[in-house]
Design brief:
- With 327 residues, the protein is of the alpha/beta class.
- Helix content is 40%, strand content 16%.
- Strands 3-2-1-4-9-6-10 form a 7-stranded mixed sheet, sandwiched between helices. A 4-stranded mixed sheet has the order 5-11-7-8.
- Helix 8 crosses helix 11.
- It is globular and about 60 Å long.
- The relative contact order is 0.11.
């Protein structure tokens, strides 16, 4: 039986994939499988993965005929995975040797639905440890109770799918798949759904994932229309949270996070292409009008003046139908 399935999407990462695959080899075990999803790469990534299929123990290679984005590629991997546990890695990141066996041992001991872990962020030669915003470590907790408070960073703000491990029962309950087609912020509806609907989780100080920042091809570095998918992602968070029995408690957190991300993008709007910048303003203004206005007013009153000012100016803006920009 497969104990762990590691789902790794790749898209045009020929310069980084060899390091990723080397680190997977340093984590291989007889009962581990590595589901390598080539999301229709156009560089030398397919050739690199073809070699890995032959040489990496436990490798399973899946190819997309069309590029679907990270969420869709992860879903392909979930559907092919056979493991009792599942985890994720991005095709330009890497692992410490022996990390996955330690993670599986911790999951076996805790017996919870999912575990979240710290990680190392790598920007060039710089290294920084980023920790799960959860003070209690190594104990099983109720994930719903980790969503709040609204005015502090909590576990739902630490949305990295690869920073953790997940029991197969979450797949069976329909909680592990991502929203098809989301090209950025795909982790946000996903992490909120896990925290609202899963039964148990834990946080660990186990370090082993090295997250590469500043990659030129990463969507976090590209100011094109795909960045605007954060609006669709957070609209989903708001819609699903509004249906929750505890919506009154949880919506202020969801709205505040949405507003913070919106203000962040508006504050760096110069990095977007002009047509996309116009669409960002228009879509954001429309999104503010869709939010529960009483909650929005309270959230903006509690935000710092600079971010609240950006949102208030946008809120007063007449809403026009945004012309869609495609890539």
């Amino acid at each position: 039986m497969v104990k762990l399935s590691v789902i790794v999407p790749f898209y045009n990462v020929q310069h980084y994939a060899p390091d990723t695959l080397k680190s997977l080899r340093a984590n291989a075990r007889e009962d581990f499988e590595f589901v390598l999803v080539d999301d229709c790469s156009r560089d030398e990534t397919p050739e690199i993965l073809a070699r890995a299929e032959r040489e990496l123990p436990g490798a399973v290679l899946v190819r997309h005929e069309q590029n679907g984005g990270l969420a869709t590629a992860r879903n392909t991997g979930i559907d092919r995975a056979r493991g009792e546990y599942l985890t994720f890695l991005d095709g330009d990141d890497w692992l410490a040797p022996g990390y996955y066996p330690q993670l599986v041992a911790a999951m076996d001991e805790l017996g919870c639905d999912f575990v979240r872990t710290d990680h190392v962020q790598c920007t060039g030669r710089a290294r920084a440890i980023h920790r799960v915003p959860q003070g209690r470590r190594g104990v099983v907790l109720n994930p719903r109770e980790a969503i709040l408070p609204a005015d502090r960073s909590t576990s739902v703000d630490y949305a990295y799918a690869w920073a953790g491990i997940y029991h197969r029962r979450l797949v069976d309950r329909g909680l592990l798949h991502f929203t098809h087609g989301l090209r950025t912020a795909e982790d946000r509806p996903w992490i909120w759904k896990l925290h609202r609907e899963a039964d148990s989780f834990a946080a660990l100080g186990l370090l082993g994932v090295y997250y590469r920042r500043g990659v030129a091809s990463s969507l976090t570095q590209i100011g094109d229309v795909r960045q605007l998918d954060f609006i669709r992602a957070f609209d989903q968070v708001i819609e699903e949270t509004a249906r929750d029995p505890e919506a009154d408690k949880l919506l202020p957190k969801a709205v505040r996070t949405y507003c913070a991300i919106m203000a962040h993008h508006l504050g760096s709007i110069e990095r977007f292409e002009p047509a996309v910048a116009r669409q960002l303003r228009s879509l954001s203004a429309a999104a503010l009008k869709r939010l529960p206005q009483d909650v929005l007013a309270q959230v903006m009153d509690s935000m710092d003046a600079q971010r609240a000012g950006r949102l208030r100016r946008l809120r007063r803006r007449p809403t026009a139908t945004a012309r869609t920009v495609t890539v």
